[in-house]
């Protein structure tokens, strides 16, 4: 467990949305259910899961764009829920967001200067226009764009350049935490790596903590010190990234890895032979009882459909919410043994 200062603590967060009406009753979608996470200064936490698992709702709650129905969020030790409007505005200096879509997240009527200077204006930082121009020029250089571009409009830039502008705006206030919601998924593959590497270098240069949300496991593995896996609104496994990718202990994580050939082709091919993830995730309007994954899990037993699993510590800082982590881990151990054996021509026992 890291000894670094905790900059973001979310505890038992839940959020539902009204999905419609059935007769006289309201139908609600459970987007995030009882999620707890901790982020330390300067570290990066990756959050992965299929689309619709609640990642974006979680991100929006963390930065204050959605109000949780239940739970508590602390940024820099301050309870966000107990702050009045002015306190929340001040706190927004500490946590900022990079959005998924660089085409819609920037106001098309504002110049690059106005876009990046806006947070400085709101927080009354560098009141003089000349100082602000200097700061915007500096921020553009930090994201590898020319200061000469500050009088242009967003439509004059490529997707990758727009995302760099969004990042410059997000770091303008030198936040402690940057929440990145699928920041490269709308970009061409050719520029994804550049933006990911930019985020990584800004993180180490400025000491910012990253919450990096993505569905691409290879990207998360590259960026994150720790990784958390979400399924149908629940956090099902969290561990140091190297540990999670080599010793996944929740059947859903194992299935995700087996479906991601770029992570480790040899191992995942073996896993894929055994771990087939049937069907689509169930509807969050009426999530399964007990473990939410039981309708798709090949290790499910009767307890899984009746009792919600608690987190089990499976080693160090590695937690998994499963009744049968022993069986899941022995399955992975078998896969590793098989891969080792086939790599050595069957000489390994
Ligand atoms: Fe599968 Fe049961 Fe574990 Fe859920 S609790 S992941 S259904 S084995």
Please write out the topology.
Layout: E1 6-22, E2 25-40, E3 44-48, H1 55-62, E4 70-75, E5 78-79, H2 85-91, E6 95-98, H3 112-122, H4 129-142, H5 159-171, E7 177-181, H6 189-206, E8 209-213, H7 217-223, E9 226-231, E10 234-240, H8 241-246, H9 251-258, H10 265-274, H11 302-306, E11 311-315, E12 318-321, H12 325-343
Parallel strand pairs: 3-8, 3-9, 6-7, 7-8
Antiparallel strand pairs: 1-2, 1-4, 4-5, 9-10, 10-12, 11-12
Iron/sulfur cluster is lined by residues 250-251, 291, 293-294, 297, 299-300, 304, 309, 322-324.
Protein architecture, described:
- With 349 residues, the protein is of the alpha/beta class.
- The protein folds into two domains: 6-224, 3-Layer(aba) Sandwich (Rossmann fold); 246-310 and 323-344, no CATH class.
- The chain is built from twelve helices and twelve strands.
- It has helices spanning 55-62, 85-91, 112-122, 129-142, 159-171, 189-206, 217-223, 241-246, 251-258, 265-274, 302-306, 325-343, and strands at residues 6-22, 25-40, 44-48, 70-75, 78-79, 95-98, 177-181, 209-213, 226-231, 234-240, 311-315, 318-321.
- An eight-stranded mixed sheet has the order 6-7-8-3-9-10-12-11, with helices on both faces.
- Helix 6 links the parallel strand 7 and strand 8.
- The longest helix has 19 residues, at 325-343.
- The mean pLDDT is 88.
- The chain binds iron/sulfur cluster (SF4).
- Iron/sulfur cluster is lined by residues 250-251, 291, 293-294, 297, 299-300, 304, 309, 322-324.
